[in-house]
Amino acid sequence: MTASATTRRPIHPPPAPASLFPYHPGSLLSAADLTLDEISHILTRATALETQDPLTRDRILAKRRVALLFYESSTRTRTSFELAAKGLGADTTLVSSLSSSIEKGETLKDTGLTLRALGAETIILRHNSSGAPWLLEAETRLPVLNAGDGMHEHPTQALLDLRTILAHLRPGTHTVTAETLAGVTVMIVGDILHSRVARSNMQLLPRLGARVLLCGPKELLPEIAAQTGPGIEIERDFEAALRQSQVVMMLRIQAERLAGLQLDLEEYKANYQLTGPRLAAQAPKAIVMHPGPIIRGLEVTAGVADGVQSVILEQVKNGVAIRMAVVERALTAALQRGGRA
Amino acid sequence: MTALVIRGGHLIDPAAGVEGLKDILLKDGRVAEIASPGKLKQTDGAETLDATGLTVAPGLIDMHVHLREPGQGYKETIATGTAAAAAGGFTSVAAMPNTRPVNDSPEITRWMQAAERGAAVRVFPIAAATRGSKGEAINDFAALKSAGAVAVSDDGLPILKDSVMRETLAAAARVGLGVIQHAEDTRMTHFAGGIAGMNAGPMAFKLGLRGWPNEAESSIVERDIRLVQELRDARVHLHVAHISTAGALAAVRQARRNGLRVTCEVTPHHFLLTEEHVGFYNTHAKMCPPLRAAADRDAMLEGILDGVVDAIATDHAPHAVHEKEVEFEQAPNGITGLETALGLSLRWLHGEGKLPLGRVLSLLSAQPAALLNLKGRGTLAVGSVADVVVFDPKAEWTYSARQTLSKSRNTPFDGWAMQGKVRWTISEGRIAYTSE
Predict the structure, then answer these.
(1) Can the peptide bond before residue A155 be classed as cis, meaning omega within 30 degrees of 0?
(2) Residue A325 is assigned to a structural domain of this protein
(3) Separation CA A298–CA A294 (nearest Å)
(4) Residues from chain A contacting residue B279 (CB–CB below 8 Å)
(5) Range of the domain at A243
(6) Helical packing angle, A196-204 and A155-169, nearest 10°
(7) Taking CB atoms and an 8 Å cutoff, what residues of chain A touch B301?
(8) Multiple choice CATH, B60-372, 3.30.830.10, 3.50.50.60, 3.40.50.880, 3.20.20.140
(9) Which residue, among B280, B286, B305, would best test binding to A if mutated, counting the most A CBs under 10 Å from its CB?
(10) What averages of pLDDT result for each successive group of 10 residues across chain A (341 residues)?
């Protein structure tokens, strides 16, 4: 059959509709959901709450109900969310996939509805499946805080990383703008492919003017990563990347997600391990970060992890302050603001 | 059997080259007479349908549906799936064999066509190419054909092994059946940690989802075309199911230039939607092959307009509500499509793209009839099967998944504007659907 080119017109099917998420203004699903004003607000509240008298602070969310729903193991995130909620006076309850009806096949939807029926006013979700918090929010319409979903995002980690970076590079800054981190290069090294920490930082930091430099082997860092947003570049030469960076963010090799990938760990260490001599030679003034858990002797040497440039434990500490601000926001966000498009 | 007269409608029969105001008499399940308005000779006792202002066309043929029976009646039954087909203007549907158990036997092939299934329109089974659709041992195609199978396919899965695919093509050609290939190199889409759920690219990376690369489709299509080329004296017919990538379509185009019988179908979702519609993990935008990048979607539209695409098929794949209300990675692939194919095709291909109405209807009837060798269907020539759709081509309406006749409502087109409302669907002379 021949084409009747004269009568044809180009067809422009409708674009995808704007997202209805998040439904709840208190939700934090992706680092991309936050405006610069909201980021500034969270940073300001984190400092205020951290320094507030614990005896008055625990009236802020007195007896409010916060559920932690964890489908994956966690030390830092779970404990700091729990301490944060309790520090504001909230009651917390932990449901983990082991030792709950999730083991018997209960779905995320039903687990969420059950928690809501039990009086949970917000759910903090850690899940092994990318996008699970969107499902949970859609089904419960509660404020949902994403505490890490599969390979996708971990927005509170990006916020606590930001607080740590600001403390060292822009001390005293709480109100952020599109230029706050202008001129700063943050390198993220290692298993970018499987890292939700990397993705959240890639969403957040360029919006404050930072340049994000990704570094790692092709198996763990596909070229496509650089196309996910502005301000993101790839430098595969570890030492060249180090020389350009004020912030060095090391990532763990996620052995549990590596299934099927061939990776020679000795070769990886030779090329990408952050050692004392490398750091001293290439980035003697940079701060060294790591979201944890650290595998000493793999991505970083023990000397670097414990060294003077390491701010790894500051990150952990900042986690509590940031999560206090985020939990407070979840339970006090004015419903009238409605969902954002 | 009673007779039926459709009066005053605008008849379009692309296969017969007929277009104009005609009355049509259906009798004993066949088209008995076509005449200018008021000129039918033998209408005594016939029930009359007034089609003034409406278009009368050959009943639509969907060469790719999943009716879920036997085995998964909670998703769909042959009765409910064909009721949805009738509502969408379809009078014939070709049912894929990925049932439970897989339709790889004459017994199941016959069971699907039995009167007890309560089908509203005609069901033509497509039988499995290999035993259990495992891609190893090929079935007895002659027996399947005499039981009513109109093609063979392992749809849902590809026939990966070169030797098995070659044998399938040759054996099917010997009995005059086409081979429908689900082109997916699963070595590129199935990982130890899970199966790819969306198109590979920046968006999949950003969403933390495993990507289904274009090459997984195009490499299989290219491999299959090589096999057809090698067997070119054997009158082989390869049909590529739900083609979705520019590369695979280019390969089909080239194969046709080389004189090979290689055909393909495109679904409405692959010519209208892109990976952007996945949005934030919308499981109603999850199907296999996945929604692609805009360039691929545009290539599908171009292929429809320039004629390299042979048919529009829906890949109607019903799933229960609870099965789609899960984490994106765990949700099953597929969407329903029988009730939206005509409305979307008319709105976008005819309304926006100005593709002549006859061309759109041909892609939905005459061409799939030819691909599946359905004798006497896809045309309203006198003596052909009385499969007719009568619709208002100008009517604009909004699709509501809640009102579907399918058992399932997993569609991304809920709330979409449609053009062309089906008034009656007539299957083998019986009214199978009447709109409110």
Answers:
(1) no
(2) yes
(3) 8
(4) 16-17, 19
(5) 155-316
(6) 60
(7) 11, 13
(8) 3.20.20.140
(9) B280
(10) 55 89 95 97 98 96 97 94 98 90 91 97 97 97 97 98 98 97 98 96 98 96 94 98 98 79 87 97 98 94 97 98 98 59 32
